[in-house]
Design a protein that fits this description.
Layout: H1 8-29, H2 35-38, H3 41-51, E1 66-69, H4 75-84, H5 124-138, E2 144-149, H6 156-167, E3 173-179, H7 188-192, H8 197-203, E4 207-212, H9 216-227, E5 234-239, H10 262-271
Helix pairs in contact: 1-3, 1-4, 1-10, 3-4, 3-9, 5-6
The structure holds thiamine diphosphate and magnesium ion (MG).
Length: 273
């Protein structure tokens, strides 16, 4: 019961291209966040390429599914995905983080396809709940997806929002935790561990789907299960790898917020898988 027909080989090729575009966009800008962008490629690709109802030429179309990028620093993956699906010209990626550009370092409403300004972590799920509640009140059947980081969910506000979504039975909300194991300054498990993460969300009243978030087929299937679930919100725990695809960036907090220089870009493109 997939939303659209898809070809796994083709999606994998698209994911590979998205990673190239992310690395090049960062290198041109000279700053930005590679780690949490590379880990989330399959999450964004599954949503925009297969799962969501959306119209790139009409970003404010009323019936669109909504994506709230709560981890608002991962603009490289957001902009690369939006550009590759036609929200704005791919050429514009070269203006990333430049003064006056529509493509700022954290997501803003200036960019076609972006639903909410984020950057201060921990706020997206509350906003997603509001959007989902409004949909129910107005009798609209669009879905709201909220993408959060694993470091981000150390914020107490996330758990207030988790209580609210379950209390109000917001089965039109799908939270995604990009569980890439690394935050800004080190491993999540060293700084403030999350385990047992599945049980935590279950206890908060959520339908929990635990997957390999870099396996695009598992990501798509998780979203399809969300669409079929009624009476409670769904969270997808997407087990990913920070820096996924570039071995020297993987699981390295040093690559949380640092752009590759010319030589590092060449090396990254050589070893990219
Ligand atoms: C409230 C708040 N505190 C601190 C920051 C600075 N900051 C930006 S990204 C980040 C780390 C986030 O880690 P995680 O959620 O794991 O993101 P990912 O690994 O997906 O990049 C921090 C601390 C922020 N943006 N907002
Ligand atoms: Mg993380």
């Amino acid at each position: 019961m997939s939303s659209k027909n898809y070809d796994i080989k083709d999606l994998k090729a698209q994911a590979y291209q998205h990673r190239i575009d992310i690395l090049e966009t960062l290198a041109v800008a000279g700053s930005g966040h590679p780690g949490g962008s590379l880990s989330a490629v399959e999450i964004f690709l599954a949503l925009y390429g297969v799962v969501m109802n959306h119209r790139p030429a009409e970003p404010k179309w009323d019936g669109r599914d909504r994506v709230i990028v709560s981890k608002g620093h991962v603009t490289p993956v957001v902009y690369v995905t939006l550009a590759n699906f036609g929200y704005f010209p791919k050429e514009e990626l070269k203006t990333f983080r430049k003064f006056g550009s529509r493509l700022q370092g954290h997501v803003t409403l200036k960019t076609p396809g972006v639903e909410f300004n984020t950057g201060s972590l921990g706020h997206g799920l509350s906003y997603a709940n509001g959007v989902a509640m409004a949909a129910k009140l107005k009798g609209k059947d669009f879905k709201t997806y909220c993408i959060m980081g694993d470091g981000e969910i150390q914020e107490g506000s996330v758990w207030e929002a988790a209580m609210s979504a379950a209390h109000f039975k917001l089965d039109n909300v799908c939270a995604i935790v990009d569980f890439n194991k690394v935050q800004e300054n080190g491993l999540v498990s060293d700084i403030k561990g999350l385990e047992p993460l599945v049980d935590k969300w279950k206890t908060f009243g959520w339908n929990v789907i635990n997957i390999d978030g870099n396996d695009i087929e598992q990501v798509i299937n998780a979203f399809e299960e969300f669409k079929a679930t009624t009476g409670k919100p769904t969270v997808v725990i997407a087990n990913t790898l920070k820096g996924k695809g570039v071995p020297f960036m993987e699981l390295k907090s040093a690559w949380h917020g640092k752009a590759p220089n010319k030589e590092q870009l060449a090396e990254a493109l050589k070893v990219l898988y």
